[in-house]
Each structure stands twice: as C-alpha cells, then as structure tokens.
Amino acid sequence: MHFKTTVAILGVIASISRVATHGTVSGVVADGVYYQGYSPSMKYQTPSPKVVGWSIPEDLSNGFIDPNNYTLPDIICHLGATPGQATASVKAGGIVKLLWTPWPVSHHGPVIDYLANCNGECTTVDKTVLKFNKIDGVGLIDDNSTPGTWATDQLIANNNSWTVTIPKSIAPGNYVLRHEIIALHSAGTTNGAQNYPQCINLQVTGSGNNSIKTGTLGEALYTPSDAGILVNIYTTLTSYLVPGPAMISDAISTSQGNGTDPAPIASSSASVASSAAPFTSAPAVTSALAVTSSDAANGALSDSSITQAPSSITTATPSEPTTPPFPISAPLPIISAIANLTSAIPTGALTSTLPAEPTSGAGSNATGTLPPAPSTPLPAGITLKELLEWLEIIIMGMFREAKAEDNSARGHARAF
C-alpha cells in the first residue's frame, strides 16, 4: 500500500472518533434495587463483571441493527449478544426502570418492551428460541410540530430513563426483558430505521399464572416494510402504529413522569465497599461505571428509596470524586474509531504489507500537506490490520497504566 494512502487512512481515525455515538442501558432499577447493566468497556476487564445486561462486546461503536438484518439473530438482543450472567428480581406488577446513557435528541422514535420466558436459566438460554410478548409500546405522542413528540423525547426528559411495569399476570420464573428504541430520523427511506435492542435478565416473583409460553421469535418481530418502520417522521402524521405484535391483555404503558426526581440516590451499605477495603474478591466494576457516577450524574438515579443490589460492583467512597481523573470509558471513542475504520477498509488493503519507509512525495498531496513521516521505519512485513491491532493494544495499555497509577495514588492518600 502506498505510504500516502496509509497516512490518509490513519488520519481518518481522529474524525471518526468525534462522531456522536448512541446509547446503551447502563443499569436497571427493579422494585427499588439497582443492578449494573452492560458497558462496552467491560470487554477489556478480566474477569468480566457478572451483570444483568446481556453482553454485546462487538458493539464498540454503540451502533444499531438495520431492517436488512431483521431476520438475523442480532436483532434479538443486539450485535453478537450473549446472556447476562446475573439476574434482577422483580415481582409481577412491579416496576423496572431502565437507565440509558445520554440519548441523541435527533433520534426520535418508539420505545418498546417485550418479555420472554427462558424456561430455565436465562444465563444459558439460546436467544433464537425465545418467544417475545409485548408488554409496553409508546410511539408518537403528539404531532403538533414536525417531527413531533416521541417516546424518546419522554425518555430524554426523564433523565434518559424509561419505566416499564411487569404485568401482574406473569407467573414466577426467569425471563428476558427485551427493551428497545427504534430511531426513525432516517426511516423515510428503505433500510433507514435504526433498532437499538437491549436485553436484561429478570427473575419474576409473585402469584401470577401466565408463563407466556407462546409469543413471537425475535427474528420475526418486524419486517422492513412495516408501517412503523418505513415512515417519514418529517411529514404530518395523523397516526403512528408502534411496530411489532399487539401487547398482551394486561400490559400497562407506564406514565414516564416529567423528568424530575426528589433526591440523590442512596446506595445500601451492604453493597458498597468501604474505604478501608476498597476492593472485592469478586469481579469488580470500577467507580466510573458504578451507581454513584455515570447514572447518578445523568440524574436517572435520584429516588432516595433506591438501593443497590448486593453484587461485585465497587463504588466510590464519599471522600473521593465520583468521576476519576481517567475514567474507564476514556479510550472507547478511539477504540470505536479503530473498529469502524477496520470494518470500512477492504480486506485486500488491510492485509497488504506496508512499506517500511515513505516513498518520495509522501509529505504532500493534491489537497494539502500531510504530516511529516516518522524518523523510525515500520517493522518489515507489517500489514495495516496488524498496525491497527497494535494501536488498540497500545491505547489500552496506556489506559491501564494510568488507571493503576491513579489507584495507587488514591491508596496512598487514604493512608494519611
């Protein structure tokens, strides 16, 4: 590959990393108890924390599933999703509050919730056999002005959170809650809708008798031509049909409130590591992902009745800042950019051997001056794919070293 081409491609990384990403469910509150959700940064933690959210380590860019993939397994719980290894407990008739990372205001669309019986343990269930039943679905709220007010606008106004009620009829057992936003800002053209499914493991308690053994398979929930999928939201809409099957008989679309909450969250002492013993022997999620930081900062966790579930999560002590100087999510935009860049480059270019030294004229092109070439040549025989892989490893290594130094400094500070 020509050196000028290589430099140009690598220069794209900076611009890609500035592209706004979308969101994930960072945690849930079930019957007043907080449970950690999945975070893309968990891909780089060893061992991986056991959380209620399904793992989607392939989705480093917080991307979406498009209508062309509605018949493939990725539509079920997102890209390459595997079952969460923890479970949130909620009684039939109880409330589950899903806490999103900030959602883009331009991504208008419906918010939909489904429930599927795992018929055993959800931690090992085959997602392709899950039969989903709709228990909540909110779409267009009013169309007084284009593009209208949508469920996503309510979610944003409610501090990037969404509340769903588990129907009282649901029998005790293990279920997957499939929670989904469908962004319609580009849905006026074929394959323009964007699905963001997220799955959560639930253990339902109570005295209900509906085990919902029937339902709709995930790959059969939607078609690209559904009225609620292929729709132009920038025209006047007299009505909007929320995609998917009808809701079950006793499903309730819960009021999402006005986005205000009375007080900051209080975590239960049983689940928070003390300053004297800041680490647990179980897999730990650092304070940047804990209940006292990202979720609380968004305002989604602001009900003083909420406690944190006993788990392997370690939160920051009151004397420490809630966001460390080098948060765990810091390298993610760069890692996402590398992943996006790798997928965009043709295989032939990725596997081509790079020149060890620049060829003549590598410092300029027709549109301007390129950065000067490094004085040290590349290792002989290295490919662009290998270079990008090394770049990812180096970035994560630098992050871990900085994080270790920060933890060491905090430990010394506690000693005084």
Q: Name the helicity range.
A: 10-25%
Strand fraction: 15-25%
Secondary-structure element order, as H and E? HEEHEEEEEEHEEEEHEHHEEH
Strand order of the largest sheet: 3-11-10-5-6-12
Task: Describe the structure in your own words.
There is one protein chain. With 416 residues, the chain is of the alpha+beta class. 20% of the residues lie in helices and 18% in strands. The strands form four sheets. The chain has a six-stranded mixed sheet.
Question: What descriptive keywords fit this protein?
Answer:
5-stranded mixed β-sheet; single chain; 416 residues; 7 helices; 20% helix; alpha+beta; 6-stranded mixed β-sheet; disordered N terminus; disordered C terminus
Topology of this protein?
Blueprint: H1 3-17, E1 25-30, E2 33-36, H2 74-77, E3 88-91, E4 95-100, E5 111-117, E6 131-138, E7 140-142, E8 149-150, H3 151-157, E9 161-165, E10 173-183, E11 194-205, E12 216-217, H4 291-298, E13 307-308, H5 332-344, H6 347-350, E14 364-365, E15 368-369, H7 384-414
Parallel strand pairs: 2-13, 3-11
Antiparallel strand pairs: 1-2, 1-4, 4-9, 5-6, 5-10, 6-12, 7-8, 10-11, 14-15
TL;DR?
The protein has 416 residues and is an alpha+beta fold.
